[in-house]
Amino acid sequence: MLQDRKIRVIVAKPGLDGHDRGAKVLARALRDAGMEVIYTGLHQTPAQIVETVVQEDPDVLCLSILSGAHNELFPRVMTVLKEKGIDDVLVMAGGVIPDDDIEGLRRLGIEGFYGPGSKLQDIIDYIKSHLKR
Amino acid sequence: MDIDGLVERMRQGDRRATSRLISLAEGDIAAARAISTRLFKDTGKAYIIGVTGAPGSGKSTLVNQIISLLAKRGKRVGVVCVDPTSPFSGGALLGDRIRMKEDYPPGQVFIRSMASRGKLGGVARATKDTVSILDASGVDLVIVETVGVGQNEIDVYTLAYTTLVLLAPGMGDEIQAFKAGIMETSDIYVVNKADHDGADQLVGEIESMLDLAETIELEHGEDHVVVEVRKQAKAGWRPPICKTNALTGDGVEALWAAIEAHRSHLVNSGEMARKNRSKYRQEIIDILREKFALHVEEALDLTKNGDLPALLDEVAARKQDPYTVSDGIGKKIADAFKS
What we know:
- Chain A is an alpha/beta fold.
- Chain A has helices spanning 21-32, 46-56, 70-83, 99-107, 120-130, and strands at residues 8-12, 36-39, 60-65, 90-95, 112-114.
- Chain A contains five helices and five strands.
- The radius of gyration of chain A is 14 Å and the shape is globular.
């Protein structure tokens, strides 16, 4: 095996949100799909998340939030990513995000949205077909 | 992506370039080689520390404390954390960062999670390349945290200058389980979770193990294991035992003092030169083995070598034996190896 290309994914929990069952289930599912998953743990600031992206060089950043602060925290994550010139990472979102908010977040560059009831296989398929590099 | 360009950007302090270089080295042996040959002259400046021990002994939490201490002293630190790859899915859950959530000034700490990708021995194939890249990027120290180990995962010992073996009380007969393998690789023993019952007893057990090893050495000097111990004794370094509580940070200052003492010992005793020789010897062995393994895989790839199935059928029919067949293949590989 000369080439050993693995999809690297960061699963991050921004803000003051103690609920990470979903993030852990997702991390496990992506692992079982053959990906390398870096889980940041809880209570990450946007700056910390982007710093992790800089150091870990992932293909995908999955943001999970259930606190309702997505319109506050996600734009900040996207702004800091832009400041660092990071534009080749697929950014996805999960948790509780009302349908009405999705369009605005999409405009910021967040692409896949998977709330409660999503099928894990759908998320895996989406990642595999939307990688940016 | 262009490696020269990335190397140039890394030299100018672009950490994303450092990160990309690590990914490239991890994904592709040819890229690892290209990067290593370009960067090698810039390496050798960082002091490399290995941290190993059983799963749950507190490696990541302790590493976090060491980073924190070093950052306060203005040091730049690189960290490589290795976690196991699933043998079933090929995926991995890299969770060491969860213990390393403190904020540091930009550029001071660089933590990279890495999956073992099927490599046994406690570190990944690309761990040594990653250490070199971080070294060349200008950090003062690189800490390598292995996967949670059992007995025989000792690769970090040749990679690092100072190897810490972590133990925690309450893990039963662990001292027995460890003593033949990684227990010998330790430059410093760390009894973590020192606030738990049994910590002092564990310290006592390690002390008596070290005493016993020295006694045995006098009696059976020819035995391989014992010779290694005698070397250590001759070199004048008896591994100290440091008690820590990685959650609170208790004992971490003393541990750092022990690491610095070991470093001085290596430099002053001339052991450093010996360590470097064995380190690079091992690295060259690994590179050659890997290169050879690729040729073996290539030569025995059923999809690429049309006459292979017939050859294997001959073996199954007892017309040829596996040793003779492998001699023939070996000669072909040797020719391919030269080119």
